[in-house]
Write a structure and sequence with these properties.
There is one protein chain. The protein has 24 helices and 29 strands. It is an alpha/beta fold. The chain is globular. It binds ligand MGD (2 copies) and molybdenum atom.
Amino acid sequence: MKVKTACPMDCYDGCSILAEVDETGNIKLDGNPEHPITKGALCNRGRQLSVRRNSENRVLHPLKRVGDGFVQISWEQAIAEIAQHVHTTLDEVGHHGIFHCYDWGSGTLLKNLNQRFFYGLGGCTETVGSLCWDAGLTAQTYDFGRANSHAPEDTAEHAQAIVVWGRNVANTNVHMTPFIKTAQARGAQLVVISPLAQDLGRRADKCIYPRPGTDGLLALAVLRICRDRDWLDHEFIREAALGWEEIATELDVYDPQMVASLTDVPIEDIYWLAELYGRKRPVATILGIGMQRYAQGGQTVRAIDALAAATGHVGIPGGGVSYAQRQLALFFDEEALTGRSRADVRAFERTTQATDILSADPPIRVVFVTRTNPALQVPDSALFRKAFASIRCKVVIDTFMTKTAEMADYVLPCTNVLEEEDVAYTTMWHDYVSYVRPVVEPKGEAKPDWQIFADLASALGRPDIMAGSVEAWIDMALSKWPQEKIEALKEHGFVKLDVPPVAWADRKFATPSGKFEFVSSLAIADGHHPVARIEIDKLQRGTEAYPYVLLTIHPRKWQLSQRETFPEARKEYPIVEIGLAIAHEQGIADGDVVYVENERARIQAIARVQAAGHAKSVRLEIGWSGQGVTANDFTDTRKADFGSQSAQYDCFCSIARVQEEEPSRRELSAIAPANTGQ
Ligand SMILES: Nc1nc2c(c(=O)[nH]1)N[C@H]1C(S)=C(S)[C@@H](COP(=O)(O)OP(=O)(O)OC[C@H]3O[C@@H](n4cnc5c(=O)[nH]c(N)nc54)[C@H](O)[C@@H]3O)O[C@H]1N2
Ligand SMILES: Nc1nc2c(c(=O)[nH]1)N[C@H]1C(S)=C(S)[C@@H](COP(=O)(O)OP(=O)(O)OC[C@H]3O[C@@H](n4cnc5c(=O)[nH]c(N)nc54)[C@H](O)[C@@H]3O)O[C@H]1N2
Ligand SMILES: [Mo]
């Protein structure tokens, strides 16, 4: 019998899954063909959920550090000892001495219960902010009041042009491609804007490869041309927007010729893009996370919002600036699950948590890591590892012995999604949510996160904190839903939430003025310039020693650092893709072994020379580690301008060929590099 379940990954697509277990215990996963967005297709990462479930490398029992290694212990011992650490910490320094370091490694509803445990103790220190998308979310909050997206079907049916701006659709949002193809079959144009060449680019009418981190300039130069040629939607500007005059007068700064030289985008392409936004209608802009991981990443998103709004693409079918789908959160009562409003929380930003740990007063005495692998994933991960090592008791809850788990004092095995009942509700793109049903029994002694925290609460004499059942908790979180909808969710495996297909069609924006705000009162209140503005002297540039941009990009075949079950991902020597100018300047040929180096790290890697893309950019997949370092040892903890966002793509390096006579060159020649592509 097939079980309907769902992928919990932090992802745009949020797939509905059909699972079947055969007599040998083999689990076959397929996409659910009934799902209107994911339509029966499941990506490599989704399929790997069953491989991860059955992997021999899974952690199956509680482990305790002894010296340099781990020994297996019973759950009773693990819970009793960890409870004692919590108890002592509460006595010595209070609840802020307990650190919950978490992220969204699984995006299901009941994972919110992890926080419930800590809040039930009065509070804790916890991670806030984002390594992912917060600058863009904040920018869209300033402009629109919230980040709302158009439904994929709307783009497919109505867009006359689709501009994919900084989203690597063919890798990170694969179910978008069929919608784009539908639009193209109607004659819609496709533009891809990304410094690294993307597979989607092969289908595009135009690819634009800007210098990384300069898209804001590009958008404002395009807007200036639209202003000068009067390719504007005056009715929208007058009736639905606030502050056009202010931004219009500032556009003089963005001379197209100057912007062409700063962005490395040919001036003809800047005019071409202006004509597209100014004269085609409607243009759908699909924003990704890529272009906001920079010092001025928030302003960059504001600049693109302003361009699309002034040229009349906001609030109409087939238009919009679709970045995220934040309307989903309105349907779930997370507070009922977490109880956060009653808790005393000390916040450490994810980007800078290492510094916070090292200088904490009161100090951190015990840390719990859930749903994240920070030893690899936070910028300047070497600093993170140093800070983490300084904590007296380190507890990591995971399914695998990750780099973070390797440093722990206790590793506790949690269930894989195929062993859980829950609701997957964190798609970054569409408005369907799915029911997660157990397909198999937990392997080994694995327990769901909530169960681990319930056991800890009991050991601390506080069973009340986590009292409840899966069914009751789901009902609590869905308290705003009619009963039929909950039943439909369980029966069909997914439901569509009632989110409008066209964002802001009623032109009632969620901003303080109710209008689209070219001049944002919220931005002003946060101390930012009132309108979208890129400061040329704040663009980050390389140095003579480290001239090339190092983009540490999400892997194509797997999710971030979740690569344990991919043998090809565990290579000591990663692939780096380098632009043509780098190959030329450094005399590097495809397949050469090269040093990648900056102030913080140095590795050897195998070069793949890229014919297309920004010629001075380098791509290294994030989540890799080897040679004693991680990809995030190259990045630093600088932040973007808005919200709490890491600017980890503002990172520079040198590339140099490893000379033939160096021994490593010979050792490496045996390795046949897999071409990862973009
Ligand atoms: N296969 C796979 N899919 C995933 C993930 C994964 O690890 N693997 N991770 C998931 C998660 S957590 C997230 S947040 C999403 C992220 O998905 P995306 O929105 O695609 O974000 P990134 O992977 O950061 O995007 C990188 C793209 O942005 C481009 N880019 C980088 N800098 C710039 C710039 O300055 N300007 C422009 N215009 N483009 C730029 C890069 O060339 C690259 O094509 O993907 C999700 N999906
Ligand atoms: N340089 C650079 N750094 C980046 C990025 C980048 O593009 N470049 N991308 C950033 C982005 S967008 C993101 S979202 C972050 C994410 O970074 P992380 O949150 O660290 O994401 P993953 O590497 O996917 O690790 C998630 C971990 O959670 C575990 N896990 C999965 N499900 C569960 C569960 O139900 N319970 C528990 N307890 N554990 C679970 C997995 O086994 C895995 O070890 O990385 C960021 N870091
Ligand atoms: Mo992310």
